[in-house]
Amino acid sequence: MKNGLEDIIAAETKLSDVDGAAGRLIIRGVSLDDLVATSRFEDVAALLLDGLFEQHADAASIRTLLGAARAELFAHVKAADAVLLALPPVDAMRALLARIGDGDDFTTAIRLMAAPAVFLSAVLRLQNGEKPIKPDASLSQSADILRMLTGKHPTSEQTAGLDAYLVTISDHGLNASTFASRVIASTHAGLTSSVLAAISALKGPLHGGAPGPVLDMLDAVGEPENARAWLSQALDHGERLMGFGHRIYRVRDPRADALKTALRPIFASGQADAGRIALAEAIEAAALALLKERKPDRPLETNVEYYTALLLDALGFPRNAFTGVFAIGRTVGWIAHAREQMLDGRLIRPQSRYVGPLPKAA
Ligand SMILES: CC(=O)SCCNC(=O)CCNC(=O)[C@H](O)C(C)(C)COP(=O)(O)OP(=O)(O)OC[C@H]1O[C@@H](n2cnc3c(N)ncnc32)[C@H](O)[C@@H]1OP(=O)(O)O
Ligand SMILES: O=C([O-])CC(=O)C(=O)O
């Protein structure tokens, strides 16, 4: 038995379907491509949370509620002391989030969705020696995140780029962090505990911690013509190429293409260095060719984290913040799964098979 629970169906969900063979992602009956083309973060939040709380909230009310929650939560930034600020941004953000009281209600859900946006932006500025910027409750979540990060009003291309990212990564079946969220929810510990557990699972380099290292790889390769030699050496040293491979997808991760499309307007309008796309494409082609040669029996394709790195970098996020930005988008998915587990499920408690020594016979 492998200890990765592959092929085990551990939940029934109406939230999202990851079809690994077809390379297709459906979120609440809508294909990812349609969702990215038509939705902003608040739309996908309304879609995912629909029917899971007593209150019904459409995208417009979620936008208003998130704005008010961001403004209210800014007071917690004061708790960011030197010890907390010495932590990596995702850990500092998680520590601030732990100050939000537990609860299973819609108000807690809204606060949990607003909190990573406020805390991550504030932590990044404080770590950079800058004053945190107060939220603007009138803005959309994406526009306000970019404004709180840079101090400038984002362009429409930048806001659309961040919305596309947050929508793309909002939910993804029973991935490791979502499973963690459901396990905690099944004990009725509360939504804050679920989200904290999920962030803790997300930050690992095999899950949501990959895009920072993707950018390190791009920088280390430097020029397209170095790609094959650099990647070969990394594989010779037994390293995994970040941004490639997936537990479920056996073909290309559809989110990689969605993000590649989303980043084009930012680069095309001169708001980021277009040479980066050419370099990323050259490295991607070399990586896919090498992985095919070295693992001919295991399809290893580009995953969501590869173009995430390029997009978030172009939007001005430092690479040590990428996992935190992932958490901003995925929190709504974690909350939806936690609520679904609470409403339809029971305590999660699988079995283990004991393979250790037996007590000595008396
Ligand atoms: C949002 C997300 O979580 S997306 C994933 C982000 N993570 C990454 O990009 C990190 C790089 N990728 C990986 O480590 C893996 O592909 C994972 C963790 C995503 C999926 O792993 P699994 O489905 O468990 O694949 P598994 O670990 O069984 O690997 C199968 C084989 O392919 C190899 N392999 C898998 N991915 C890679 C990779 N990116 N680079 C090189 N080799 C790889 C493994 O070393 C293994 O080889 P072996 O059988 O000789 O030991
Ligand atoms: O589904 C997974 O295993 C990992 C992933 O891509 C995600 O959580 O977005």
From TrEMBL:
Keywords: Acyltransferase, Transferase. Pathway: Carbohydrate metabolism; tricarboxylic acid cycle; isocitrate from oxaloacetate: step 1/2. GO terms for biological process: carbohydrate metabolic process; tricarboxylic acid cycle. The active site is at residues 246, 305. CDD domains: BsCS-I_like. GO terms for molecular function: citrate synthase activity. One of its GO terms (cellular component) is cytosol. It catalyses: oxaloacetate + acetyl-CoA + H2O = citrate + CoA + H(+). It comes from the Bacteria. The keyword rRNA-binding does not apply. Belongs to the citrate synthase family. This is Citrate synthase. It comes from Rhizobium leucaenae.
